[in-house]
Amino acid sequence: MRNPSSKSGKQGAATIEASKTTPCCSKVGLKRGPWTPEEDGLLSAYINREGEGRWRTLPKRAGLLRCGKSCRLRWMNYLRPSVKRGRIAPDEEDLILRLHRLLGNRWSLIAGRIPGRTDNEIKNYWNTHISKKLIGQGIDPRTHKPLDPAPLKLASSSKPKDIDGHNCEPSPVISAGEEISSSSQVVVTAKDKEIARFEDHVEHNADHAPSTVYLDVMVTGCDDGHGMSNDEEDLNCYGGDDVFSSFLNSLITEEAFPVHNGDSAIASSASVIAFTASSSALPLRSDCGSGMMSSAAALDENKTGNSQA
DNA sequence: AACTGCAGCAACCGCGCGCAG
DNA sequence: GCTGCGCGCGGTTGCTGCAGT
């Protein structure tokens, strides 16, 4: 933990210049910057006693000179008992990569699928580790596609490496090069067409509730990474999330993290297709997760993340 | 030993969504 | 339908600690 007594640039300056900025909530007289052990203790004790929620009024009730947002963030990212501290394991890293390829920068969703990890932690890890590795490999960390399309044709001669630097077959999305004719690539191309059809379907039905619902569910899943126990929420997600859960779980279990394995990567693609096909017919609830984006936005994001040319 | 540069990560900010009145 | 409030999310900032010189 950072030294609480240290002066912080942005944070300290913001305190000084509180009147200049437009605070999200009244910060006049509120403490900012690093948390002290005493504050942590107060917050933990209060939440253990009274439970989470009502963040706006929590600081006052808990005797803290912090804004509710700050308390929530501290609890979610650091104090929660379920938060796992320590280094991200290679399998977790692989799962993050996988989920990011599927979900994009939906850190809370990704975090919800990795027990004990927070969205902030995953986001940080992505930006500081994985993103750089991918860039180093010539892969756009945002789209998971080659930064320069040209090297695609070299894929067969120089195998790409996974994030750990191991040799591996190109992952389907990354290598969605339609011109490549290896057997695995043929399958990938078919997958891409399937996804394109799915997107097309969504686009044409953007105004209709069913598509809205299933797209939202696909994008949001169950936001169980925040404000609740991961394990419990995984189990308690209502029926509609089952499809999404099993789909995401399939990424975890079926593939067992072999990014390097082209076949399993294809299996993942098949899961995408299977999921999109099956979920389109299901009357799923769509209110899982408070940060849910609109279907249109989801569509845009989905296209950006999965089939950007 | 002192200095510099960089990586890691905790914390802040603004925005958007859901909901109640 | 409109408005305000509470909350959650993603992007960004900047301090800390460590490695390299």
TrEMBL record:
Protein name stated in the entry: Uncharacterized protein
Source organism per UniProt: Melastoma candidum
